[in-house]
Structures are given as structure tokens and as C-alpha cells.
Amino acid sequence: MKKLIQIQKKIIPEILEIMERRYLILKQISLNEPIGRRALSNKLELSERIIRSEVEFLKSQDLINVHTSGMSISKSGTYVLDNLKEFIDEMMGISHLEESLKKKLGIKKVIIVPGNADEDDTVRKDIGKATCKYITKILKNNYIIGVTGGNTMHEFANCLQGIKKYENILVVPARGGLGKEVEIQSNNIAAVIGKKLGGNYKLLHVPDNITKETLESLILEPEINKTLEYIQNVDVLIFGIGRADDMARRRKMPKSEFDYIMSKGAVGEAFGYYFNRNGEIVHETITIGIKLENFKSIKNTIGIVGGSRKAEAILAISKIKKDLILITDEGAANKIFELI
């Protein structure tokens, strides 16, 4: 494929330019449907004249639908978008970036989507879609799936429409947690994913930062104890990766504790553990759910994260789990190369 792209660039470079432009238009429509021409023009920084012309072409090819409420992608458009991705990624150098980052981090697999989630929120939707596509390749009947919370995990759950149904699938939250942002809590995400996969789900209504005595008491509760058994035996773990400072603030960590973990070089957080850039634990919160020894032994472990601000957190997690599958964006990937 690489040789073909190089030849096309020399002989008919304008074709690749047009293909990339139409691919990006289809992608933005897919991510933001229904969307109007002016909004599309602003997002892609293309003139309305170009957008008008390309929309007419895409409509004539039955790749998009145009309504008074805006444009949406058709079934044919979705098919084209999915099948063009590998070619476009190669053309844009993303395939090379994936392979380079995989080798640099020394992990099992890297999937990168274009853009930077810190600058464009729709990139998280792309990470969610890439996760859905990967998950459909590895899921099997009778699997137990563990999930965490977070904005990117929420986007992944939303992307599961139309996925094939599996037999005897169980989805569990990888850790407890209650909070105001119900939509992005692991319990809600587990429920959404369980329903969309045609399986079952368990909930874990346990707050973060509880006392050791309360923790020991809760573990004895039959329903919680049974859910914890499932968590310890997950076949696939899909989790978000957070910055240490962001997660500490979200969980309302006391200032003295916050200052302590920052002084110890905490850069990333996952499952209630705070890590420095070398993947060493600098702090552990009292919580119910997956433990680090479980995390290290899970065969299919997928970390999904976007944005250049998360680069150090990704570095920390990649030191802990060498068979990690990382799904991220260009912003994070390029920042990691800068750091190392």
C-alpha cells in the first residue's frame, strides 16, 4: 500500500488531496450528525463554496443524507468511511506513527486516530469508534468485561449501536464509585455496554475514599462479594487513563495528600492507584474493585485515552503492562515522542 501511495503522489497528487478532503468531510458528518454546511465549514476550516460542492458530490453518490435539520451519513457512507480508514491512515502517516509508538513504549498494540482531544472534543468520539471496532474482533461468548468510568469511556459506550449480540456476556464496573456525573460513572457505563451487547451487567454502588473498616464490612455483603469475584475474573478490561492531578481534584483529595503525591512525581491514575512516570505506585486510595495484581494478569487489556495532556500518564501505564493495547490520538502520540 505504501508504494502505491508514493506512486499516486507523484503521478496524480490531486486525487489523494480530494480523497482526503472527502474522507474528512464524511468523518465530520458521521461524528456530528445532523450538521449544517456552515458548521461543517467552520470545523474543517474550508470555504462554504468548497463544502457546497463536495456535499453535492457526496449526496449524488448516496454517501450522505441531507435534511432540513442537517446532514447525516448514509449506510453506504459508513461503509466507505470504514474501508477507507486504513488507506487514509497510511497516507497521513498514522500507520507509521502507530508502529513507532508501539516499539518505543514496548507494548502489544497501538491504535491512533487523527487529531488531539485537548483541542477537539470530537476526537474522543473517534477513539470510541476505534475501540468499538477493535472490541468486535476479540469479544467471545461467555466473556466477562470490566470497564471503568470517564468521558472517553462514555464515548465508547455510546458508539456501540448496531454491534452484534453475544451469548452470556457479563459487564462489570472495574471499581466502585459514586458521584454527581452519573453518565460517566463506571456503573452507568457497565449498564449501557451490557444492554448494547445483549448481555447482563452488575453494579458496584460503593463510594471512593472509604475507611478501611467500612471497606472490610462492605466486602462481606453477598451481592458486592459476588461482583468482586466477577471483577477478579474478567476476560477483557477496557479502561480510561487519567492524569494524577485531574483525578485527585475530581475525587476531592485533601490538599495535604494532593501536595504529597505531586511531590512524589505522580503523573497518572488508574483503579485508585497513582503512578510516577516509571510506573511506580506513589499512592493508593482505599477503594473496592480491581487490584493491580489482577490488572497485570488480564489477557485483553485496552487503555483508551486522548489528548497531549495525558502523555505522561500513558507512559506510566505502559511501564506496568507490556501486553497493553493502547487506543489514543495523534496529540498524545506526538507528545510522548517529545517526552522520550
Automatic annotation (TrEMBL):
Domain of life of the native organism: Bacteria
Annotated ranges, domain CggR N-terminal DNA binding: 18-88
Name of a matching Pfam family: CggR_N
Keywords for this protein: DNA-binding, Transcription, Transcription regulation
Matches recorded under InterPro entries: CggR_N, NagB/RpiA_transferase-like, SorC_transcr_regulators, Sugar-bd_dom_put, WH-like_DNA-bd_sf, WH_DNA-bd_sf
Limits of the Sugar-binding domain: 91-337
Molecular functions per Gene Ontology: carbohydrate binding; DNA binding
Family stated for the protein in its record: Belongs to the SorC transcriptional regulatory family.
The protein's name in its UniProt record: Central glycolytic genes regulator
Source organism (scientific name): Tepidibacter thalassicus DSM 15285
